Amino acid sequence: MNNLSNINSESFGEASGNNLLWQYVQSMSPQTVTQLSKPSSPDVLQAMERTIVSMLGNLPSEDFNVLITTNRENLGRLLAAATMNGYFLRNVEQLMAFEKSLQAADAHSED
Questions:
Q1: Which of 9, 57, 82, 107 has its CA 20 to 30 Å from the CA of residue 33?
Q2: Distance between CA 87 and CA 109 in Å, rounded?
Q3: CA–CA separation, 51 and 82 (whole Å)
Q4: Domain that holds residue 32
Q5: How many domains does the chain have?
């Protein structure tokens, strides 16, 4: 994902000239894209792995030679769903951290 210039912007449904979000993503530095792409906690990473495994099937790869084939459209939908799940989990993680800090602040102010 560090080399965004090689990704075809038409994959996102619009020509790059009309898609401001795509232009913004392309303007990001590779370091920023890398930082945004990594889960911030092992819990989020584990939840994402479980989500993707449940989408693809739950056969253990050590016991089965699993081969998944699909077309470009369905793969795009899978990636979009995984991305949205990632954003959702990240937002939940941030909300949980915010609530913990509020509880700690309340406990500190009561002392």
A1: 57
A2: 33
A3: 8
A4: 1-38
A5: 2
Q: How many CA atoms lie within 13 A of 69 on its CB side?
A: 0
User: Does one domain contain both 9 and 34?
Assistant: yes
91-105 pLDDT, tens digit per residue, is: 888 888 899 999 998
The string of pLDDT tens digits covering residues 19-71 is: 887 788 788 888 887 777 777 778 888 888 888 788 777 777 778 787 888 89
Verify that 32 and 63 share a domain, yes or no: no
* 19, 9 contact by CB (below 8 A): yes
Here the tokens at position 74 are 């369905």
Which residue type occupies 89? L
CB 9 within 8 A of CB 24: no
The answer on 47 and 101 residing in a single domain is yes
